Structure to design on (846 residues):
């Protein structure tokens, strides 16, 4: 059955004329409030449960500010990428090239710094290089109308290969001063954590209130309808890809800065982790919905699992297996929710 | 003995009593119409019969024998088949594969006997008057042809009851006539046919009896010959509705809002037309004549090869629908679900989609304003919804259509294009949509309306422009037009001479 025609019969017109807040499902359920749906609450619960479990199992060390700070630092780069990926997925597209972008921008930025470009400018070079990669992705996807998944799978290879060409040895050490961005602490947390939280907060607000970001929801919800509502869907997606690229560039700079070296393996597994976090955080694979706070909590949850496994001495190779399982679990909950609602 | 007897059927969905003690009886060889407004329970009743849902109480008898239909597959085994409003064919498979989908003829070693499948398909398709090769892909068929394939799918097994849900909604008049012939032939073979439709003219044309539902209850059963449209509407809606022609006329000196000068945008060729402020111009033409394409061209959704589109005398540069929207043009598209609605989003989002700019306060969207505006339109257009937070997927077709109208009314457009304003909409809502469109025109909006429903064209239009094979083929004043005159101008072989073309 395509719709629920019975529903209409129940409500007399007089009632329908005063829908008001009282009859609505309330503030927390408002569609416009993508930031307050039930998914973030679920993730808070999952995070707390895992922390509680580890606390009972291993003692208070797990809950220490040092440990939490390190989990947050692990989350930060993925978290920044997840903000961009969430926006893309809301608009119904993906970017699988972010691992390659992250690797390449780290190396480009490192080379720039080593060649005497002022440090702050070298950071900017990395972000700019990322934006250029995103621009290329966006151009191909929107101008040539190719599938984003395939295009970015291809450019992932291209960017990674370019990174290896630029790098040569595989590890590019960076002159001192560059590491301040990644290694400085402020109020118990490293700078990347603050950058991540700041970006997540700003983009959460923008996604809720700013017109351009709202267009992403319409495009993901029904691209044809969005176009026929006067939204320039190609341009909006194009810009979203550039934004994703710039965020990947920033992540690349932060990783290089943290390690004080740009390595060609920096981007390994990045798309898997980031897309897992986005889906777990409430992004619909078909587009049209998603929650940036949800994905931030999801990335924290993934880092927490990783940390817990290290604490209880589980082989590191298990980590990717666990992430894969979480992704399938997250996708299946979306599927179940969809089944139930239709 | 009746072929089908459903007695005392009740069904409750969470929070909604969809059916309350409803009974229906259909004789073998009878075409039985089932009518009622959206929400009356027609679809639910038919879904119970097709095994999609289970009744809470009541019995279903086939040829006097009580049956239970716990699943859609069980319905097939009982000889009950339903052709849904939405096509259920697989476009990338062949006609034969679709027809025999679930139960192909089996050859030796349990493999599919393709030759038998094709031969049987040819036979069935021939019987249904669709002479196409069964190895063609379903995606290459027209909507009407695909519908016949749906029926073919049903008749490959012993068929006792055939349910057709709004079968003519997207068919041209000729295609509809063909479908009726197929229905009559099946009925002559003893099949009981239940025909769900909003089009009352067709109910009288094709059915022997008609069952009317309202708000989940049975209103009555009538012989189709004993009642007229007004009687049925009275039963369905509980009040009188009028679809009389609008006799108001636009002043000859009313300013021209839309002017097309020699516009060519394949398949549209050399189209010129005007719409004045306050005027409703209906585009009439057969399916595939280019009506919809013409609308999309004016709306900037198709590239213009030559010619000009002018709004209020100014030439428009239309690279993208956004340009048209900016200029003050709105369009309610033909296919509500595919091209209009954001089904998984709520009313507010759907209403605000084309006018977010106007809800900007210091660079940020004011959701309070969106809510207030949406609530205003909910009451203005009488949209039936529990709240503006409701996802539009849960609204009935008529209410969804009103949501799309509201989307464009937020920023009063200069020109509103409405492609099929009342497709799949019940009579009560239809009358309301007519009222809305007329009030819009009276307020000075120029309206360009496309409709396949000729009575609708005659009721709504001030002026009728016919389109044939991408060209403007004629123009009529609605006051002096009738269905024959429109068809004559709209059919492809019509030779046009000046005296046949009345200019308003």
């Amino acid at each position: 059955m395509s719709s629920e025609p019975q529903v209409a019969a129940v409500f007399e017109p007089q009632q329908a004329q005063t829908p008001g807040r009282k009859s609505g499902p309330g503030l927390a359920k408002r569609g416009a409030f993508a930031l307050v749906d039930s998914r973030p609450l679920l993730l808070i619960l999952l995070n707390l449960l895992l922390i509680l479990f580890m606390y009972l199992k291993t003692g208070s060390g797990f809950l220490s500010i040092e440990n939490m700070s390190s989990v947050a630092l692990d989350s930060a780069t993925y978290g920044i990428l997840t903000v961009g990926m969430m926006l893309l997925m809301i608009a119904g597209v993906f970017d699988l090239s972010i691992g390659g972008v992250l690797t390449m921008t780290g190396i480009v930025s490192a080379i720039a710094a080593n060649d005497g470009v002022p440090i702050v400018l070298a950071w900017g070079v990395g972000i700019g290089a990322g934006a250029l990669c995103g621009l290329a992705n966006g151009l191909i996807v929107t101008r040539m109308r190719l599938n984003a998944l395939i295009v970015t799978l291809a450019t992932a290879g291209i960017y990674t290969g370019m990174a290896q060409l630029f790098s040569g040895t595989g590890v590019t050490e960076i002159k001192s001063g560059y590491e301040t961005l990644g290694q400085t602490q402020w109020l118990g947390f490293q700078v990347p954590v603050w950058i991540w939280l700041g970006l997540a907060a700003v983009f959460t607000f923008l996604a809720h209130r700013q017109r351009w970001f709202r267009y992403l929801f319409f495009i993901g919800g029904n691209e044809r309808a969005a176009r026929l509502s006067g939204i320039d869907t190609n341009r909006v997606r194009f810009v979203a890809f550039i934004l994703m690229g710039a965020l990947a560039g920033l992540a690349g700079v932060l990783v290089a800065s943290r390690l004080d070296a740009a390595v060609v393996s920096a981007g390994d597994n990045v798309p898997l982790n980031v897309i897992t976090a986005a889906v777990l955080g409430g992004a619909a694979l078909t587009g049209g919905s998603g929650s940036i706070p949800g994905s931030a909590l999801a990335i924290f949850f993934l880092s927490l699992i990783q940390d817990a496994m290290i604490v209880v001495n589980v082989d590191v190779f298990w980590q990717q297996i666990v992430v894969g399982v979480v992704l399938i679990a997250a996708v299946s909950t979306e599927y179940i929710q969809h089944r139930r609602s239709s | 003995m009746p072929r089908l007897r459903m007695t005392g059927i009740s069904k409750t969905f969470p929070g909604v009593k969809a059916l309350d003690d409803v009974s229906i009886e259909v004789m073998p060889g009878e075409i039985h119409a089932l009518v009622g407004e959206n929400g009356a329970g027609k679809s639910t009743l038919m879904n119970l019969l097709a095994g999609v849902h289970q009744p809470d109480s009541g019995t279903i008898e086939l040829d006097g024998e009580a049956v239970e239909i716990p699943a859609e597959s069980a319905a097939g085994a009982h000889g009950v088949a339903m052709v849904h409003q939405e096509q259920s064919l697989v476009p990338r498979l062949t006609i034969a594969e679709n027809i025999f989908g679930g139960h192909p003829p089996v050859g030796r070693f349990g493999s599919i006997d393709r030759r038998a499948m094709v031969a049987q398909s040819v036979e069935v398709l021939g019987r249904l008057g669709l002479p196409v090769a069964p190895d063609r892909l379903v995606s290459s068929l027209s909507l009407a042809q695909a519908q016949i394939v749906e029926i073919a799918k049903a008749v490959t097994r012993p068929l006792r009851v055939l349910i057709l849900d709004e079968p003519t909604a997207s068919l041209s008049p000729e295609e509809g006539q063909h479908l009726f012939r197929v229905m009559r032939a099946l009925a002559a073979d003893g099949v009981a046919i239940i025909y769900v439709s909003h089009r009352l003219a067709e109910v009288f044309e094709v059915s022997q009896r008609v069952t009317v539902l309202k708000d989940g209850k049975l209103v009555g059963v009538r012989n189709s010959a004993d009642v007229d449209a007004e009687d049925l509407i009275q039963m369905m809606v509980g009040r009188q509705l009028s679809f009389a022609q609008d006799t108001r006329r636009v002043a000859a000196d009313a300013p021209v809002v839309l002017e097309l000068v020699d516009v060519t945008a394949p398949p549209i060729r050399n189209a010129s037309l005007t719409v004045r402020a306050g005027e409703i111009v209906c585009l009439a033409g057969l399916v595939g004549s280019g009506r919809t394409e013409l609308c999309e061209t004016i709306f900037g959704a198709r590239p213009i090869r030559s010619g000009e589109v002018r709004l209020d005398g100014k030439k428009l540069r239309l690279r993208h629908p956004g340009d048209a929207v900016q200029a003050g043009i709105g369009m309610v598209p033909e296919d509500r679900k595919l091209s209009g609605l954001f089904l998984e989003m709520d009313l507010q989002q759907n209403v605000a989609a084309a006018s977010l700019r106007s809800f900007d306060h210091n660079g940020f969207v004011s959701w309070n304003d969106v809510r207030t505006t949406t609530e205003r339109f909910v009451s203005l257009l009488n949209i039936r919804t529990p709240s503006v937070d409701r996802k539009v997927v849960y609204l009935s077709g008529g209410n969804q259509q009103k949501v799309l109208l509201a989307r464009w009314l937020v920023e009063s457009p200069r020109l509103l294009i409405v492609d099929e304003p009342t497709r799949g909409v019940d009579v009560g809502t239809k009358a309301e949509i007519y009222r809305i469109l007329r009030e819009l025109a009276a307020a000075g909006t120029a309206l360009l309306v496309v409709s396949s429903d000729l009575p609708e064209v005659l009721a709504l239009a001030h002026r009728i422009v016919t389109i044939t094979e991408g060209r403007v083929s004629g123009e009529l004043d609605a006051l002096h037009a009738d269905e024959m005159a429109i068809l004559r101008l709209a059919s492809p072989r019509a030779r046009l001479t000046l005296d046949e073309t009345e200019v308003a």
The radius of gyration of chain B is 24 Å. Residues 494-504 of chain B have pLDDT under 50 and may be disordered.
